[in-house]
Design goal:
Blueprint lengths: L4 H4 L5 H14 L5 E2 L11 H11 L14 H15 L9 E4 L1 H13 L5 E6 L3 H9 L3 E6 L3 H13 L7 E5 L11 H14 L2 E5 L25 E6 L12 E5 L1 H14 L5 H12 L3 H24 L11 E5 L9 H12 L1 E2 L1 E2 L10 E5 L4 H16 L1 H16 L1
Parallel strand pairs: 1-10, 3-4, 3-5, 5-6, 6-7
Antiparallel strand pairs: 2-8, 7-8, 9-12, 11-12
Helix pairs in contact: 2-12, 3-10, 4-10, 5-6, 5-9, 7-8, 11-13
Amino acid sequence: MTDFHKIRRLPPYVFEEVNRLKARLRADGTDIIDFGMGNPDMPTPKHIVDKLIETARDPKSGRYSASKGIIGLRRAMAGYYGRRFGVKLDPETEVVATLGSKEGFANLAQALTAPGDTVICPNPAYPIHAYGFIMAGGVIRHVPALTPEDYLSGISRAVKHSAPPPSVLIVSYPSNPTAQSVDLDFYKEVVALARKHDLLVLSDVAYGEIYFDGNPPPSILQVDGAKDLAVEINSLSKTYAMAGWRVGMVVGNARLCAALARVKSYLDYGNFTPIQVAAAAALNGPQDCVDDIRAIYKSRRDVLISSMKRAGWDIPSPPASMFAWTKLPDQYRDIGSMAFAKLLIEHAGVAVAPGTGFGEYGEGYVRIGLVENEHRIRQAARNVKKFLDQSGQILSAHRDLVAEAAQ
């Protein structure tokens, strides 16, 4: 039986191979220190949970909600943008509440894309950035994005060599997976390029509140005229440790928001109303919890960098996000990120995400999530030290297995 058309357009899920190995080892009793998935492990702040419980007790709370989000939540989202970025948004026309940022991104792709449309996408990037458009029938023009400067310099070249001309440009900072951040001048250049080449811009800022050094990351909507051509995709998942609640937003250009709202009106009735009320309480309420969550990630980052350095693995210190992005240790550069990730789980009980899962330009790197506590991070570093010390025999056995499989 052949696969359906859209399923055929999707490659094998790279992380599934690592996940299967992780599951098998856990079933055998191995303790896995798991840095592989960006899944927040701290509890959602109490006042947000309390608001959910209070609202859920209302007998009417189980009724259908609104596909673009209840007005109280959309006002709270607009209020957040006003306070944080000085950006004025109309909650009726320039804000759509989504079922997490991933759903918002995927349905934007459905709303914007005709078969064969070309989209400029950073590589490496979070998979939905490319595959949301691929599932919608689009064609991806990958531009190397190991640094923001690389990406900017490649955009005009991608426009020149794409047929048909691209219609959409994707940016995502702080970046998942590279953890890099940008300043407002970067977005000014993006807006100028988009205007020059008649592009719409989708800016993903899901990690905009997880930053450690220097100024808070800006919004593209702070650039004069950005709302003429751009929307921003944002999320409460990491900011308030609410990943499983699935609350995101798309804000900015009214035409793009209307297109998304139209698509959503056919597909969903919005999130459970008590979740939306609690999300509004998160945005409108005390923000010291955000500072606390940010401080936890910063402390974990510092422990990861220092303890791995002592173990013999120099990892660049990420300025933002909940990830570190690093090259493979020198001994393992030749085998690739997937093989390295599998050996690391098998021999050290440490799981990371292979860079190749984020695109071809991610090969040679791994992403490490700051999702284990400091004690577990130090234990992982001790395991990694032994792993690196034994790399000669580990690699010899690995090459023997590869050679045997090739016969």
